[in-house]
Prior knowledge:
This protein is an all-alpha fold. It is built from 9 helices and no strands. The protein has a domain at about 55-190: Hypothetical protein af1432, CATH 1.10.3210. Helix content is about 50%, strand content about 0%. Helix 6 crosses helix 7 (about 145-155).
Amino acid sequence: MTARATFTRMEDSTAADWQLIGGEYLRFARTLPDRLIAHLRLLEGDYGGFPVDRWTHCLQTATRALRDGRDEEYVVCALLHDIGDTLGSFNHADVAAAIVQPFVGEANHWMVQHHAIFQGYHFFHHIGLDRNLRDRFRDHPHAAHTAEFVALYDNPAFDADAETLPISTFEPMLRRVFAQPKQSLYKAALAPMAAPAPME
């Protein structure tokens, strides 16, 4: 068992406690890609009535983006865009966006967060919703970026016969993108702990 802090109220914690907790946190954070892949795998076999299961849809969306020459951050967003389906049954895009937000740029974060509304253009009218909900974002600087993602990669990725690369293709990209947050409330505090020890 690893060492643990002994406080019972956070207000009684010390800098030494947080040095210990921070070290444990860094070890835990390094395994985030493993947990993401494990959680994404929960979508395997989950068809929900769709022509392909949600796992295949995510892999196929990423495959299409990769084959089209998109950069690694974009491809990883394509891979994870529906990871929220398991726990965020009513707001899956928000869940996925929260996961990627510390590690990706603003445009790709916005794309993941709003892709469900933009995808709705293709089917909302069949379920009694307004297919033009995306129009309220018409003037947003990332609207075209998101519409393109849906049109080129998300919308057509329900084809059981289409190329679908295995997760092993995307795992190295996922590990690189999630290696270090670009923005986080805790980024500045964790930087000294993440730095290599000085040579003696």
